[in-house]
Amino acid sequence: MSILFAILLFSVLIFVHELGHFICAKLSGVQVNEFSMFMGPAIWKKQVGETLYAIRCIPIGGYCAMEGEDEDTDNPRSFQKAAWWKRLIVLVAGAAMNFIMGLVLFAIVYAPVQQITVPVIDFFEEGCVLNREDGLQVGDRFLEVDGEKIYLSSNFTTILSLNGGEVHDILVERNGEEVFLDDFHLVKAEFPDSYGGTSLRYGFNFSYEELDFFGKIRFIWDNAMDNVRMVRLSLQMLFTGRAGLADVSGPVGIVQIMSETAEASKTVLDAVYNLLYLGGFIAINLAVMNLLPFPALDGGRVVCLLITTAVEAVIRRKINPKYEGYLHAAGMILLLALMAVIMFKDIFVIFKG
Predict the structure, then answer these.
(1) I need a labelling partner for 24 at 20 to 30 A (CA). Which of 122, 125, 157, 221 fits?
(2) Is the pTM for the entire model greater than 0.85?
(3) Is 125 a catalytic site residue?
(4) Given 18, 67, 148, 324, which residue is catalytic?
(5) What is the mean pLDDT of residues 173-200?
């Protein structure tokens, strides 16, 4: 089930991504030569006007081939001949569609939810030293911890664990006003637990909130923003050395995660919701990653578009798009090499396990 879901998910994500490019290209007057789902030889194709629509046999990838995307042409409806702002919209449309799909999947997952935990202090346990006039108080809503916004109640411990230490900068909302606690000592202490023993905790508990329609919309959006932030934090950890290749997963690793998630679910319905959540998570991650300023990715194309537009405005001369094409081709080779390394790593981990 999880493998079929993963194949279906990646296929839909790529289709939706390319559909975004396709729709905006058509609306912008850019000629689309082919709109294809999957790769390899075509098992079905149909020419409709100037565009060939095809379904190919290898269930990986897909593409929206626009006239003059990476080469110069005299066609007045080529991608390169379109106004720069139209090209910009076409380029970001794929990622935008993936982001929207992530929101839709989150909406399906959270539709049944009636109540959530919110980062608002409900009460303090007896003896908690954090509850004081110059500290935390009942009703405080956590807005930021160490400069990171608190979208969800779970963000509180996540951000603290990433930064470590006992001293933190905390921003709370209290009685409608923002209160900043600079270099606040946030330490755990021993408190009685429900098992008759003690455990290390901060000594305060968060409130619950009933969700109306608009509350659900806000909760879905906050989940999406939290996922966007996690992509940034993950990249920061990779660049700073706090995470390595072993912490990165590709399609094979994702399928394995989906399989484990499905198996750990108590019921079939739980498995479906968990897999849909993972689908939303992957969709939003794909949207953000695709907009990174790296050659071959849409983000790299956006950067090249903005630079060449600015340069052409100064020199009053068109830059041959083939040079940008060479850059993206090199970037694609590097990306494929990285994907191959990650795939073999994931396969090795599965067989080793």
Answers:
(1) 221
(2) yes
(3) no
(4) 18
(5) 90
